[in-house]
Amino acid sequence: MTSSFQFFTFPLCILVILSSTTPTTQSQPTATAPPPPGPTNITKILEKAGQYTVLLRLFRMTQLGDQINTQLNNSDQGITLFAPTDNAFSALKPGLLNSLSDQQKVELVQFHVVPMFLSTSQFQTVSNPLRTQAGDTTRYTFPLNITTNGNQVNISTGVVNATVANSIYTDGSLAVYQVDTVLLPMSMFGPPAPAAVPAKKGKKTNAGDDSPAADDGRVSADVSSGVGLNQNLLGFLVGPAVIVMFCL
User: Looking at the whole model, is its pTM more than 0.85?
Assistant: First the structure.
């Protein structure tokens, strides 16, 4: 009886041992693809870069930050932003920003935005004056001129000169460059445009002189002929009178 129990127990033990040593296959977690990048946001880019508190405040006041984001995500033309640092704004005359009207603040920010993507290499071939979102580029409005000297990029507005310090962000659609000076446009901070010179008018004639100059000769001739006729008539009348008196 005992041997029979051992016979049936031995295979059972083998099965238990084999089952406990058989490796189990565990399911591995599948790698998830990274989420697609969100839309470009100029505000977040400047916040991450730091030292652009004043510019960000102007973006919010003028709502141009939202407009730039809309243009970036709905246009293929791209945008270039020249971003003055907080130190650049601190160098302005105290109270200058507060003295500007709402429209002037909009134009000031727009003057720092070029409605096209410009890489650093394109600065060497750009056509001046460069048109910004502020609009007109004539001398006394919003001209912006860019020149290069080796790797240095210089900007002139007619009021101030600035230098591109470094590139903050670029992705082929948006380029953000740090500038060490706030770009002040001529229309707000430059000398006033000279007054237009009125067109010269023709020389006025004397009052009452309605006859043209060519008639003067004819009138003089008429007067002379009249005088001569009177003299002949006088001689015709005086001659016989003298003869009569002589005979008497």
Answer: no
